[in-house]
Amino acid sequence: MASTETEDATARNGEDEDIAPAGSGTDTGARDTAADLAGLEAGLDALESRVVARQPWLRAAAAKALPPVIAIAIVLGLWQLAYHFELKPHYLLPSPVDVFGSLKQKWLEGTLLSFVWTSVSRGALGFVTSVAIGTVLGLIVARVKAVRAAIGPILSGLQSLPSVAWVPAAIIWFGLSDATIYAVVLLGAVPSIANGLVAGVDQISPLYLRAGRTIGATGLTGVRHVLLPAALPGYIAGLKQGWAFSWRSLMAAELIVNAPDLGTGLGQLLEQGRELQDMSWVLAAILLILIVGIGIELLIFAPIERRVLRSRGLLVKS
């Protein structure tokens, strides 16, 4: 009996020894797995979060302004060299000083700002109207399959059509009037805005739309609170392209549609320089058109786009 009890105790001790290492190994493995997961999460957080030392605003502004300033200086230097070595006669290729002299003359005459304001006000009104029409049209094309199949390719074709091609038809329809100019602007900008919104809607995850329907966001409510916010990055890109098309269309219309009662915009100013064979005047008008287009892009659309992308985690603040 004693030997039997001794054997049972030995067997129980062996079982305990077998169980104890197994439990201890499981605990160790769980701790190792938890440590690995914590390290992985820390690594992912480090990838998503980017620590950037704050710079003084003056230094940051200088860092952003320096590359464009250098590029402009290089262009002006090459221009001056072309003038100096007479790649073209001076009456065909004036120097930068001559062009800035023409701008200064218009400024002293008090007419320069009126030329700029005439074109900017026309462009702004035409663009706002294009946004209203293009947004509604883009939503319809994006959400109604029959409409998309019918006019989707037409919108793409209209977007690729040069805006100046509409000028003769608009003159016949509306005569030499502001309506002609605005018609050309609308026909140039609306397809770009609509196509941009369609592209933005196509990139929305179906999960967002189903979630919106689940919480009751349908119809116009769903468009306002789900569809448009989700499509905002593509929509902003379409708006930027729409502004570029509207500005180009406006200049094309102003070049051709010229009447005393229409006022003088930058396009008419450019055409007047051509009629007078004054290349300094022509280049000054081109320079103003370029400055206005770039200025509106940098002051209005670029900050909006950065804010939208940053709010969605697609752009890291630096």
Summarize the structure.
The protein has helices at 2-48, 57-84, 96-109, 112-143, 145-160, 167-174, 178-202, 206-214, 219-230, 232-256, 266-275, 279-311. The chain has 318 residues and is an all-alpha fold.
Decide which structural class fits the backbone: mainly alpha
**Got a strand count?**
0
Helix content: over 70%
Number of helices: 12
Mean pLDDT: 77
Order of helices and strands: HHHHHHHHHHHH
The low-pLDDT segments are: 1-7, 9-26, 44-49
Q: What general outline do the C-alpha atoms trace?
A: globular
| Distance from first to last alpha carbon | 83 Å
Rounded radius of gyration (Å)? 33 Å
Largest beta sheet, briefly? none
Report what the structure shows.
The protein is mainly α. The protein is 81% helix and 0% strand. The chain has helices spanning 2-48, 57-84, 96-109, 112-143, 145-160, 167-174, 178-202, 206-214, 219-230, 232-256, 266-275, 279-311. Helix 5 (145-160) packs across helix 7 (178-202). Residues 1-7, 9-26 and 44-49 have low confidence and may be disordered.
